[in-house]
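My main concern about presentation is that the manuscript never shows what a single data entry looks like. An entry of this sort, consisting of the sequence and the corresponding backbone structure tokens, reads as follows:
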Amino acid sequence: MCVRHLAFVLLIWFPAVLHAQKAEQPCPAPQLDHGYLVLEKENQLTYACDEGYKPTAEGWWATSTCENGQWSPKPQCIEEKSCLPPTIINGNYFENPNGWYAEHRTITIKCDDGYELKGQPERIRCINGTWPPLPVCEKSPNACDGPPQIPHAVIIKQGYQEVFVENSKVVYECESGYTTDGIATETSVLCSSGNWTGIPSCHVYCLIDPANYNQDNYQVTKVQYLKEGEKKKIRCPYWPGAFSNFRCTNGRIAHTQCCEEYYIDQGRCF
């Protein structure tokens, strides 16, 4: 019986290579010190560790999968007093390539941009297989949340992120056909003391161009822009005290005949 079992084991392991049907490359037979493993599938194994040791994963057993010629994660049994990598939300630290930290090893926590440690130590030490209470990276009071969404605009030259450090700048660009002031399509805003300053708005603007109007009829002396729905009184030089009411409608300028200002204000000038 023992001989047959040994022959079966040799049949599997003698080539020192496990062929995983779903992997692009076969994986070599893993070497596991201080533990034992079972080939659960042709491309997956499960392992556990001897007394006084533990896997490099939460729990007393762990799995590993053959991926492109490598077992991932690598099966390892480490001393129970060693520590697994801690999870630091909104923070980071130097990660040991081995995937674990020996007892008494210290790591230094660095918060992500826009976050800070408030009254907490930045260095923590692995003691008896656990880390002390982990420091918390909190949002800095002068940092800003993500810039607000505004209609008809997007953020350019900047990937999405939830928090920005003070003095960060982002650039809005209006969609085609919209501008912030009749000319500009891009506007930068600044994070200052926890708030974004200079938030723009994108509108359809109409152009009032002096070249398009007889100066004897309408006193248009410079290029002007009106937002959609905005009105502006333009003086009629040939009629003292008279005006024409210009209005931006559907991206185009329309205007009334020349009337006395009273009639324009009463909506009786067409």
About this structure: Residues 1-23 have pLDDT under 50 and may be disordered.
